[in-house]
């Protein structure tokens, strides 16, 4: 049997290829960033061709870095930024328009239009999702109406829609004339076009949004054989795992038990709670999504809370405000302040996601006095991620009736000791960081490996998970209540900015 499993992790800011061994340890990796394109305020685009080019580059680089060949890999899995919408020409393989990124808000007027008849929750029973610019359906509708001839091409099956997983898989397996056009249940559940219980495209939703079924990929399990690669560096390797990035992280954390919760601290912040085979509809501002489906087994579901801006705020301190030279410098700067100086930073750059779902919100820094300095701003920026996480976890506890005592964490920000301790304090829960923090890629690797027998069962996956660091709450309860109260006041001041 081949020695390793590969995982392609196509994220919001970069693409990585990571190779894992049977113990879930990293053997090799390569990474490459891609451009963030901002044509207008609130518009965010990616060049899908650049992403595909970078995909090929990182695969070749990771293999070459360890002197590996395609024959050393038993399979590869794909994990991806979710909701980002690509429309491309089936015959030429060329995108018809830059990809509309999940953060893009150009369809906000359409959200309001659809909400006029039935409110923002009119599709929640079938999809688990509120009406929001976040999801793919309205982005695809925009492309079909704005790109010349796109609707006619889509109706004829000559224009293909996909989230990034579909775009990558189609190209990996041969592109024009050969590529397979699929998406998995987790990514499909983020389009607002799939019925949560049938796990298929919903005819009524397609009619409501004006989407031709002919342009849509076929929906498949998260762990199953999809086809073989047709690129030189990986020729013939099975592709057998696909998961949206946050669901992949849930699998990478081995959160297979009901009530297990993970949080990924990346560009945004994403909490998922496994609810098993039960579809739990939120009454507290969360969304219901598919967690994973392995082969022919029943799908498992999750409650999710999405925070739009987490690590992106640190990047803004670096690139927009210029108060740090490198993102890693934020902890040292924030540590110069003993507390936040009563400063609160609500980073509603493109509205607020869970549990508020307010597109009219915009960012505010509240509580400024002449006492506040750069260190207080930096500390308030870090604490903003912890407060937003606290709001989402409180909603999860309300919906599920489960008191969360442990939160498994991953993502770039979990190396920040100041943030992790504050997170434990503000949640009054233990924060656990695993030995392998690249859990998103690891989850995709597990899905691919389970499909080809590289790992025999979920028990093998669970046995690999090990903790490397824990943070326990130390904050006085009265102090915690006071801080959360002030944060709530700051959030209230961010609302209603956009008419």
Please give a quick description of this structure.
By secondary structure, the protein is α+β, with helices and mostly antiparallel strands. 34% of the residues lie in helices and 23% in strands. A hairpin with a 3-residue loop joins β1 and β2.
List the helices and strands and how they pair.
Blueprint (H helix, E strand, L loop, with lengths): L3 E7 L3 E7 L5 E8 L11 E2 L1 H18 L7 E8 L4 E5 L9 E2 L7 H8 L8 H4 L8 H11 L3 H6 L3 E5 H9 L9 E3 H4 L5 E2 L4 E2 L1 H7 L8 E3 L2 E6 L9 E7 H8 L8 E5 L3 E8 L10 E6 L7 E8 L3 H11 L8 H6 L8 E3 L17 E3 L7 H27 L5 E5 L6 H11 L2 E5 L4 H14 L5 H7 L2 E5 L5 H18 L5
Parallel strand pairs: 1-5, 5-14, 9-12, 15-21, 21-22
Antiparallel strand pairs: 1-2, 2-3, 4-7, 6-8, 10-11, 13-14, 15-16, 16-18, 17-18, 19-20, 22-23
Helix pairs in contact: 9-14, 10-12, 12-13
């Amino acid at each position: 049997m081949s020695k390793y499993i590969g995982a392609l992790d196509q994220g919001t800011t970069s693409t990585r290829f990571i190779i894992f061994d049977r113990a879930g340890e990293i053997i090799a990796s390569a990474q490459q960033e891609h451009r963030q394109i901002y044509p207008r305020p609130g518009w965010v685009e990616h060049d899908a061709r650049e992403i595909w080019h970078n995909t090929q580059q990182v695969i070749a680089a990771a293999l070459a870095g360890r002197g590996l060949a395609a024959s050393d890999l038993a399979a590869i899995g794909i994990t991806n930024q979710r909701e980002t919408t690509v429309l491309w020409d089936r015959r030429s393989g060329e995108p018809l328009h830059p990809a509309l990124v999940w953060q893009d808000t150009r369809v906000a007027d359409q959200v309001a239009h659809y909400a006029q008849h039935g409110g923002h929750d009119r599709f929640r029973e079938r999809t688990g999702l509120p009406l929001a610019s976040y999801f793919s359906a309205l982005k695809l509708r925009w492309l079909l109406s704005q790109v010349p001839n796109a609707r006619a091409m889509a109706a004829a099956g000559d224009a293909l829609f996909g989230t990034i997983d579909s775009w990558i898989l189609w190209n990996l397996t041969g592109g024009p004339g050969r590529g397979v056009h699929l998406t998995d249940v987790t990514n499909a559940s983020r389009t607002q076009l799939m019925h949560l219980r049938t796990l298929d495209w919903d005819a009524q939703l397609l009619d409501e949004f004006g989407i031709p079924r002919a342009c849509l990929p076929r929906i498949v399990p998260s762990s199953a054989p999809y086809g073989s690669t047709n690129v030189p560096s990986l020729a013939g390797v099975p592709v057998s795992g696909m998961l949206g990035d946050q669901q992949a992280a849930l699998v990478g954390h081995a959160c297979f038990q009901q009530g297990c919760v993970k949080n990924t601290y990346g560009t945004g912040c994403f909490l998922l709670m496994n609810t098993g085979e039960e579809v739990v509809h939120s009454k507290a501002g969360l969304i219901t999504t598919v967690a994973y489906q392995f082969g022919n087994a029943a799908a498992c579901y999750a409650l999710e809370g999405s925070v739009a801006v987490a690590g992106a705020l640190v990047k803004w301190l670096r690139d927009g405000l210029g108060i740090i030279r490198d993102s890693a410098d934020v902890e040292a700067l924030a540590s110069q302040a003993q507390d936040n100086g009563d400063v609160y930073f609500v980073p509603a750059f493109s509205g607020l996601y869970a549990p508020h779902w307010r597109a009219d919100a915009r960012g505010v820094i509240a509580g400024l006095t002449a006492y506040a300095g750069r260190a207080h701003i930096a500390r308030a920026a870090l604490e903003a991620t912890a407060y937003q996480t606290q709001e989402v976890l409180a909603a999860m506890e309300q919906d599920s009736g489960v008191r969360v005592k442990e939160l498994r964490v991953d993502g770039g920000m979990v190396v920040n000791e100041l943030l992790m301790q504050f997170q434990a304090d503000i949640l009054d829960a233990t924060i656990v960081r695993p030995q392998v923090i690249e859990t998103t890629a690891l989850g995709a690797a597990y899905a691919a490996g389970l499909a080809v027998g590289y790992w025999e069962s979920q028990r093998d996956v669970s046995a690999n998970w090990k903790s490397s660091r824990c943070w326990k709450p130390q904050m006085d309860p009265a102090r915690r209540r006071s801080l959360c109260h002030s944060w709530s006041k700051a959030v209230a001041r961010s609302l209603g900015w956009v008419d």
